[in-house]
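User: I want to check something. If I give you two sequences, will you return the structure for each one separately, not as a complex?

Assistant: Yes, each is folded on its own. Here is the first sequence with its structure:
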Amino acid sequence: MPDMKLLLSDLVTANHILANENVLDSFGHVSIRHPDRPDRFIMSRARAPQRCELNDLMEFTLDGQVMGPTPAPGKPYSERFIHGALYEARPEVNAVVHNHSVSVIPFSVVKGAKLRPLMHMAGPIGDDINVWDSSTKFGDTNLLVTSMEMARDMAKTVGPRTVSLLRGHGCVVTALSLREVVFTSIYLEINAGIQMKALSIGNEVQFLTPGEVSIITKGRSGFTFERGWENWCGRVDRPYYPQEMNMGEGFSQTDPTG
């Protein structure tokens, strides 16, 4: 059973890391499923992620209802329903990020454009990234996902994917753990930027094959997450609490430091 105090501290750290790595700006959010109550999740009050503190964290039911007092001053994020709907639809998911990553958004609005992994660190974003368009069912809106009806419709489009884009709005990222969702979100933004640069050079970009994506995803594990997490904690002057350093499938067991 995870240490709740350390887990909550890491959630604050995740907010700071994602802001520092240009995934979240003054908006966007990261959440975790409650480790003892899978029918609840935890995320910050509506505050710029880089300013998130421990006493900003709030607990919600999966339909977005606040459990307990709201930190003062403040209110919950209006798009908390994104997180609840994904946890509701995906029992295996334990962490979610919604962001407005600037290199990712263009792929949600250019017809025919498809965001795909082309660098090895980004393989786990998947090679079937799709786009949810709120206007398909809800017509003209401000593009925000502010109800369970909208969020559940979005979750159907996401399906089993790690990443889906929201047209003109941003994206959602799902993962089994907080460190994994942070890692994936950061390399999603990096991959999108590299893809745009590659397309500016020529239109015959060699993306990762489905087989390569599968192998890379299986190989990513604790050792990889810890290496990134420790470094990112240092960049934002947050405490680093080591977790399991297991090796992923296919990594050399004789030279694990490559």
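And separately, the second sequence with its own structure:
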Amino acid sequence: MDWGIENRLSRLIREDGRCQFLPIDHGYFQGPTTCLENPSKTIDGLLPYADGLFVTRGVLRSSVPSHCQTPIILRVSGGTSIIGGDLSNEGLTTSIDEILRLNAASVGMSIFVGSDYEHQTLTNLARLVDECERYGIPVMAVTAVGKELEKRTARYLALSCRIAAELGARIVKTYYCDEDFDTVVAGCPVPVVIAGGPKCETELEVFEFVYDGIQKGAIGVNLGRNVWQNPHPVPMMRALNAVIHNNATPPEAFELFEELSKGQ
């Protein structure tokens, strides 16, 4: 592996081979999402517990302090909105010059396998990999499903993840599924991180799916709403780190969460 890519990946993935990424890029198609109206306020206190921050260039410039030492994963795809006709009609929105200028450790973009714009998003990924590999920047592919959440089956996710890896993604972000998630990870030759999806009903539910996903081969998570929409986001991140980096069980993580929440 090229030294530059290896070095950047080592900043995002700890020595234990695990990671917790914090995404705050939702506004690129959802606008001012609940609890993300003021991004700088949302991330206040959370950055020390994140192994990477997934963010757009606009919010990075306006809301993330320049002395931030948390590695940046730059969202570089977009062009649609939640009220538009089709969320999958995305294009690349950020140039390689901008990626370098912003000192990103990695970049991330969505692919929409099975959509009307499948070819477009997959060839966008291939072109992005070509550009970024030239400068030693790893690409994270996000297996997005738009509004069609019923697509989150093991068969679909395994297909999407494998295609992303085949096209050169160094990391794949995908959804967790209750059945056969291990087959999704096993069929992907690059590291897999778990996406959050809709907000869960309880903290324990989050710890359970993260724990199970880690046991089945994922290296970590990329959870947004299940962290910063929680009334106690810092305890939530710390408890998740206990699961991811310290192998805490869901009950142990929930106990830690409750203990930390009492002090707030």
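Because they were folded independently, the notes below concern the second chain alone. The longest strand covers residues 106-111. The chain is about 40% helix and 15% strand.
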